[in-house]
Design a protein that fits this description.
The protein is α/β, with parallel strands linked by helices. Helices cover 35% and strands 22% of the residues. It contains twelve helices and 21 strands. The protein has a six-stranded mixed β-sheet. Strands 16, 17, 18, 19, 20 and 21 form a six-stranded parallel β-sheet that branches. Strands 11-12-13-14-15 form a five-stranded mixed β-sheet, with no helix packed on it. Bound molecules: MU-OXO-diiron. InterPro entries: Flavodoxin/NO_synth, Flavoprotein-like_sf, Metallo-B-lactamas, ODP_dom, RibonucZ/Hydroxyglut_hydro, Rubredoxin-O_OxRdtase.
Length: 394
């Protein structure tokens, strides 16, 4: 698939993918592994595809170019979804230089135990591809791995951004102006929330660094999902907003429940929030029945999160414990929270949840609210009052 006269997409659309990073990321709409072929006076491959598609990738690539005519390989990122076909490709062209960061050399050697012809590069290093064009390298350290980098093709003004600005979103059309915009941005924000949130300070710094270089960018060719050719700056602006302690006018109530006590509490807290503020977007999710990455997207959009668990063995449910582990790693900023839950004997769940959320940087609105056995009329009123308090504390 042509991107410009001399640049083609030679990647893989993976419609079947439903889980990525093992089981860590849900991909309801599949994904793509984008590899690019630049044919100028020099021929360059930028990134490859995930390992299961290595043979298919190389066979298809042979139809695009005589592999012996490839002059350079660029590995923008060492993670397996982009480097997985390198062993198959390098088997055919073992002496071709691989341009990547110093960290990527370590990482690629760690993954594949091969001593290929690595050429470590730094920000500002270039390779001449002929016809007056060059590839300029820009280190993208911690966006999202230590080895990540982007490559910029002068003349065509294409930024090969690797993971940055991507989405796990399969499409036969592959350009941002040809796909459903709601689907596209839903996948973009999910990708940012789940993968890039902890690296937000690096996102802001790197985007400003690239903007200050004042290089024209006509196309952002990511390594997952569609290629941004229509107003590519729009996704850069979204990233700047998402990196800046992002929140929408949303309060999310997350809970697990054994015999419905904590569910009834959640629903009545929602009644109280709506009573005090009928403009705020209120969403409820049973964490044990909902995809965890979708939940992370909802937390990312929220200004306040209420997290409820019944007390089980002096602790909390496995689903809530797992979510708290995710939350701790993602380091959300600028969010408030409250713990709640029903109990029968001791009622430790709200203390555990409160402590965990505080440790993760959430501003706790109060010490949490627990309800003995199933909520009676009095407890239901207290849940409604809690909802009102939460809405008024914004
Ligand atoms: Fe798409 Fe960090 O790999």
């Amino acid at each position: 698939m042509k991107i410009t006269n001399n640049v083609s997409w030679v990647g893989k659309i993976d419609w079947e993918l439903r889980k990525f990073h093992g089981n860590e990321y849900s991909t309801h709409k599949g994904s793509t592994y984008n590899s690019y072929l630049i044919k100028e006076e020099k021929n360059v491959i930028i990134d490859t595809v995930w390992k299961p598609f290595a043979k298919e990738y190389v066979e298809k690539l042979k139809k695009e170019i005589d592999l012996q005519k490839i002059d350079y390989v660029v590995a923008n990122h060492a993670e397996i979804d982009h480097s997985g076909a390198l062993p198959e490709l390098m088997h055919h062209i073992p002496d071709v230089p691989i341009y990547c960061t110093k960290n990527a050399v370590t990482s690629l050697k760690g993954h594949y135990h091969k001593d290929w012809n690595f050429v470590p590069v730094k920000t500002g290093d270039t390779i001449d591809v002929g016809n007056g064009k060059s590839l300029v390298f820009v280190e993208m350290t911690m966006l999202h791995w230590p080895d990540s980098m982007a490559s910029y093709l002068t003349g065509d003004n294409i930024l090969f951004s690797n993971d940055a600005f991507g989405q796990h979103y399969a499409s036969e059309y592959m350009f941002n102006d040809l796909v459903d915009q709601n689907e596209l941005f839903h996948e973009c924000i999910k990708y940012y929330a789940n993968i890039l949130t902890p690296f937000s300070p690096f996102v802001t710094k790197k985007i400003h660094e690239v903007l200050e270089m004042k290089i024209p960018i006509n196309i952002i060719a990511t390594s997952h999902g569609v290629i941004w050719r229509d107003n590519p700056v729009q996704i850069v602006e979204k990233y700047l907003a998402w990196a800046n302690k992002y929140q929408e006018n949303q309060i999310t109530i997350l809970y697990d429940t054994m015999w419905d006590g904590t569910r009834i509490m959640a629903e009545n807290i929602a009644v109280g929030i709506k009573k005090a503020d009928d403009k705020v977007n209120i969403k409820l999710f049973n964490v044990s029945k909902t995809d965890k990455n979708d939940i992370i997207s909802e937390i990312f959009k929220s200004k306040t999160v209420l997290l409820g668990s019944p007390t089980i063995n002096k602790g909390i449910s496995v689903a809530i414990a797992g979510l708290l582990e995710e939350i701790e790693g993602l380091q959300f900023k600028n969010k408030k929270a409250v713990a709640f839950g029903s109990y029968g004997w001791s009622g430790e769940s709200i203390i555990k949840i409160t402590n965990a959320l505080e440790k993760s940087g959430f501003a706790m609105i109060n010490k949490g609210f627990k309800c003995l056995w199933n909520p009676d009329d009095d407890s239901i009123q207290q849940c409604i009052s809690l909802g009102v308090e939460v809405a008024k504390s914004q």
